[in-house]
Design a protein that fits this description.
The chain is of the alpha/beta class. The protein contains eight helices and four strands; from the N terminus they run E-H-E-H-E-H-E-H-H-H-H-H. It has a four-stranded parallel β-sheet, sandwiched between helices.
Length: 202
């Protein structure tokens, strides 16, 4: 299977790194491929995602496409408004409602997925001389500012930097049991495994 993924980040952005790492290591079968396309920000993603999804599906380049973005601004924290704008972009590109294109909106931002696995965070922050025990965050997708919460966990290591730290933290994940309790990640996983049943697109 070839899974296209459209992101609101640069070519080496955190969203791309985390999604690719988790998909390749824990969800996709050996030989499956991720075909990523990046956009610098949410407005660019919304403007371009229809055309980009159509390109990924043409000539069987990809079997399905995921459009992944954070709920946080600059566009504004409104899931309904974001989804409507994405669907309008898909319609403007001429994609039919039954095209295998799926949306994954992360609340509030991708770092909620990282907060979900305290074992991965502990493994990343620990050294042989100084083990770190990160407390469990019960509802990471309800955190208003996951990046800020991560920066507090980093303590004397300095502030969390998504471009530097997100990918390596995701690489420390050994099980999806905790992540699967976050609704946006569960949706991401179900789409890639073929168990997600979509409703009608507006």
């Amino acid at each position: 299977m070839k899974a296209g993924m459209i992101f609101e980040c640069g070519p080496e952005g955190a969203d791309k790194k985390v999604c690719e790492t988790l998909a390749k290591r824990h969800i996709l079968a050996p030989g499956d491929v991720v075909v990523p396309i990046t956009n610098l920000n949410k407005p660019d993603l919304i403007q371009n995602c229809g055309r980009q999804a159509k390109m990924l599906l043409q000539a069987d380049l990809c079997d399905l496409v995921l459009i992944v973005w954070d709920l946080t601004p600059p566009r504004g924290a409104c899931l309904g408004g974001d989804r409507d704008a994405v669907f309008a972009s898909l319609a403007a590109a001429g994609l039919p409602n039954d095209a295998p294109v799926y949306t994954v909106c992360v609340s509030a931002e991708l770092e909620a997925w990282l907060l979900a696995d305290e074992k991965a965070l502990s493994a990343y922050l620990s050294t042989p001389a100084h083990p770190v025990r990160v407390p469990r965050v019960r509802y990471p997708d309800r955190e208003p500012n996951p990046k800020k919460r991560l920066s507090k966990l980093f303590g004397s290591r300095g502030p969390y930097n998504d471009l530097v730290h997100a990918g390596p933290i995701a690489a420390k994940v050994t099980s999806l049991s905790r992540l699967a309790k976050v609704s946006s990640f569960e949706r991401f996983q179900d789409i890639l495994t073929g168990t997600y049943v979509p409703g009608p697109r507006p």
